[in-house]
Amino acid sequence: MAHGPAKGFSRWLFTTNHKDIGTMYLWFSFAMFLLGGSFAMIIRAELFQPGLQIVDPAFFNQMTTMHGLVMVFGAIMPAFVGLANWMIPLMIGAPDMALPRMNNWSFWILPPTFLILASSLFMEGGAPNFGWTFYAPLSTTYAPPSVTLFIFSVHAMGISSIMGSINIIATIVNMRAPGMTYMKMPLFVWTWLITAFLLVAVMPVLAGAVTMMLMDIHFGTSFFSAAGGGDPVLFQHVFWFFGHPEVYIIILPAFGVVSEIIPVFSRKPLFGYDSMVYATASIAFLSFIVWAHHMYTVGLPLAGELFYMYATMLIAVPTAAKVFNWITTMFKGSITLETPMLFAIAKVFLFTVGGFSGLMLAIAPADFQYHDSYFVVAHFHYTMVAGAIFALSAAVYYWLPKWTGKMYNEAMGKTHFWISFIGFNLTFFPQHFAGLAGMPRRIPDYNMMFADFNMMSSIGAFIYGSSQLLFLFNIVRTITHGKPVNSDKVWEGATTLEWTVPSPAPYHTFTTPPEVK
Amino acid sequence: MAGQSNTGHETYYVPESSSLAIRATIGLVMIVWGASHYIDHLSKPEEPSNAGFILVAGLVWFAITLFSWFATTIRENIQGMNSAQLKHSYVIGMQWFIFSEVMFFAAFFGALWYIRNLAGPWLAGAGAGDMNTLLWPGFEYSWPLMETPQQAVGGVSGQMAAGHLANNGAFSGPEHHLSFPGWSNMLHWLPLWNTIVLLTSSFTCHVAHVGLKENNRKKFNLWLGITVGLGLIFVVLQYMEYHEALVEYGLSLSSGVYGTTFFMLTGFHGFHVIMGTVMLLVQFLRSTTKGHFNSEDQFGFEASSWYWHFVDVVWVFLFLFVYIL
């Protein structure tokens, strides 16, 4: 089995190699990150000043919808699957993923699916315009014709996610090297095992939701139509039963990434490994019983409001345990602040900010004020961008030397970090205030009183957006001109198995499993 | 299969590069594109469209790809490339696939529960004061829902007159429902026979499995054949029931939420029965024509039988929540 990669483009089309597939996932997600980011730039350009500026409101709705869909399903999720593909076999000492051909299929479904979805921008009636949460009846009775294409695209993405997750579960359960017991697995592997379980549990529910939409639109059913005895609120229940675990699907692997990076750059073992595992599992369990906190203002019975409020607040307990563990890991460590560590620390700090605003939103009576305001937008961008994308940036800088065998430019990496950090906070921190003052989300125009906050936001967004081009440039330059690292163990404090193989990692690794003590 | 064999690590078979995934992707993309354009085309049949052709071509292409994919894995297994560890990966894969199917049905059962216990009573005014005197005056909730809220306010025109802007079609309830007809009419009640057929098929499937474990091919083939036959009988009975519902009872997808949930739940179940029957038929043909499977090596059959038992369990829940309760 000592063969290398095939020559030419067919290498990528026909590959069964987890590193090739991981690389494709990562490049694809970066492309989607830039696409979804350009939609965000259009949104922020429109909102730079009050009044209708650049785009018409119908197109603005398409932009907010496509920005959300592309970022969640095209950028963040595939990026973490790419990391899983690259790193899980290396971290558990496996020769590859458990089901390599299916692995390739999981990836190759995504590019054509997103091409089809993006092509709906040029369809008659435009792209989906009902928000990434596609509430009925906006997405049924009042939907543009492209909704059918959207529904089948979601099905295809779901198939990809389910197969990818089954593969990850089979790999972790079945392919660990001798001696690699569950409680010795790196935390990134643990978080992915639990994430994969969440995906297999909720992607089919999303498939159910879009199937009900399809039937309501085209075949006369009345799931979401009160005239026939159904209920539009039913859509929200089905959607958020998927949607809430979905946001943890996005954040748990990010927790895994920082749990790898912080110990390495603090040169101390992770504090409270066991509690990290149990906290992750608790968060996953709670994610199934809190979905209606997205629906406080829809007219839930009082008992429902109370149950979902208290259940939601419970999530703060395991999450806080994680934050304390990361901080305690750093305590009295000999810390160095390379780029991955900077992003990891920023992720912990800013995600905690997002967690606090989440706690505010969890309070049902207070949420009646915050609901559907820019406060919500600020909250989930602190968790999605700072929580997930900062962790992804950290992961790329951390593992890039292992992937390419070359070191990225540290000064450029740090510049990227600081511009990102400032740009991100300038974008989203003012949105808290705009939201609390009453600015609604998903609108192309706003009251004069929000003008200053919005201009700050837009400037911040342009700064954050352009800093990602620096990121791209640094990655490409590392591949073409980077200084070879000439060492297996690139980072001084690294302990996990991927740092025992050469850099760059050979095409096939661990064809005979290592002995883990 | 108990646990993992560590010796298997050295021989875990990582396949060479393969075109299967790309071929499957091409099929899937044709299905996605064809199905969505074909369905859109249904509402404007006067415009020419080749979407239906692309959909069918995609389905055929996909079926052929799946056939060669499974043929490849079977060939690899016969050639002895599959270690115990790799076989265990397939077992895990199938188990979690069935779990994902469970969650798919859970979405529809959950919708049924919500409509029957919350949305229905609320529409009739429970819980929220007398809101329904403003929205749907005269609507009374019962299950099965024989009169939709729209009918209660005088059909589509009544609904529009009452100022309800959202209108996505006419929903009129059925004349009869298919729920439990009382003890005296039990024997004419098709769902009961469906239940008997499907439960029996689960049993015969198990007997076939026992036969295979005893290396008794005759017994295996016989009982597996009977299982496939029972699966086909179920599909025919279900077809008869649909015919009865549509033609005699006026029950269709647009009969309001009772018809909606009835056809979607039984329809998806019926579709899974057809898939399960095809899976078992393939195993039957593998055994009768190629002599595949023995007491040690039987994953193809085992996976199909798990799937079959799963479909059976879904039916038990359907029988309970769609027909009886």
Automatic annotation (TrEMBL), chain A:
One of its GO terms (biological process) is aerobic respiration. Gene3D superfamilies: Cytochrome c oxidase-like, subunit I domain (1.20.210.10). It is a multi-pass membrane protein. The keyword Isomerase does not apply. One of its GO terms (molecular function) is metal ion binding. GO terms for cellular component: plasma membrane; respiratory chain complex IV. Its EC number is 7.1.1.9. This is Cytochrome c oxidase subunit 1. The gene is ctaD. CDD domains: Cyt_c_Oxidase_I. PROSITE patterns: COX1 (PS50855), COX1_CUB (PS00077). Residues 12-517 form the Cytochrome oxidase subunit I profile domain. The chain crosses the membrane at residues 21-45, 65-86, 107-127, 147-175, 187-215, 247-265, 277-296, 308-327, 348-368, 380-400, 412-433, 453-473. It is an enzyme of class 7 (translocase). Pathway: Energy metabolism; oxidative phosphorylation. Cytochrome c oxidase is the component of the respiratory chain that catalyzes the reduction of oxygen to water. Subunits 1-3 form the functional core of the enzyme complex. CO I is the catalytic subunit of the enzyme. Electrons originating in cytochrome c are transferred via the copper A center of subunit 2 and heme A of subunit 1 to the bimetallic center formed by heme A3 and copper B. Belongs to the heme-copper respiratory oxidase family. Signal peptide: none annotated. The keyword Membrane applies. It is found in: Cell membrane; Membrane. Keywords: Cell membrane, Copper, Electron transport, Heme, Iron, Membrane, Metal-binding, Respiratory chain, Translocase, Transmembrane, Transmembrane helix, Transport. It catalyses: 4 Fe(II)-[cytochrome c] + O2 + 8 H(+)(in) = 4 Fe(III)-[cytochrome c] + 2 H2O + 4 H(+)(out). Pfam families: COX1. It comes from the Bacteria.
Automatic annotation (TrEMBL), chain B:
GO terms for biological process: aerobic electron transport chain. It is a multi-pass membrane protein. One of its GO terms (cellular component) is membrane. Residues 8-325 form the Heme-copper oxidase subunit III family profile domain. Its main location: membrane. Keywords: Membrane, Translocase, Transmembrane, Transmembrane helix. The chain crosses the membrane at residues 20-39, 51-71, 92-115, 186-208, 220-240, 260-285, 306-324. This is cytochrome-c oxidase. It is found in: Membrane.
